[in-house]
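Example record for the data management plan.
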Amino acid sequence: MAKIIKFFVLLVIVSLWSLNYCKECYAGLKCDTQITAKSAIAIEWTTGKILF
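Corresponding structural encoding:
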């Protein structure tokens, strides 16, 4: 039983730690990403439709 509790505690710690590295920009939220590419493409995730 103690091993299961330790596993879940470790899982929670790793999950919370990884949230710091998952930075995505969403519409309406401020994002500090700098794009310097000469070209870009925007694709709708679920349908694969090219938006831009």
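Summary line stored alongside the record: The mean pLDDT is 77.
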